[in-house]
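W.,

You were right to be curious about this one. When I first looked at the sequence I had no strong expectations either way, so I just let the prediction run and decided to look at it fresh. Below is the sequence, 171 residues in total, followed by the output.
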Amino acid sequence: MVSAKALAKELVHSKRTVNRLYENKAQMNSISMHLGESVAIARTVGHLEKSAEVMKLVNNLMKAPEVAVTMQEFSKEMTKAGVIEEFVNDAVDSALDFDDIEEEIEEEVDQVLTAIAGETAAQLPEAVRKEKAKQPPQTAGTAQEEEAIAEGVDDEEELEAIRARLAKVRS
């Protein structure tokens, strides 16, 4: 019969063997990870080499000093165009004298609005005209809307039509 001491000795050897197997397994995993890392580094180096080749080709195709000169010329031309545009705008403004024309346009718009307000006021009932005479003068746009409301015009379509006519007169 096998003695207890021999069984204990076999048990200790088995445990040591199991521990060595775990160590070997850990070392194998470590080696596998290092190999994976080496493969990844090799791929990265390959990609970097391809990128370097592409950059060399791009540099050969695009001559940096020539592009810089072209960009400077383009900048000068854009500046000239801006200056010329300013001169042209100033010349046109002074030739057409927009300030005087705008004042004349405003006067004409005021006259037309006054005429429209007069026509509307003539159509109002006598009591409303007397009440309007007591009120202080208002701007043409708000006076026209208030007159339309005084006539009983609550319809949005008619108000919009009046506003549209006013907008046409102003423009």
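Here's what jumped out at me. The mean pLDDT is 79. And, maybe more interesting for your project: DSSP finds six helices and no strands in the chain.

Coffee later to discuss?

I.
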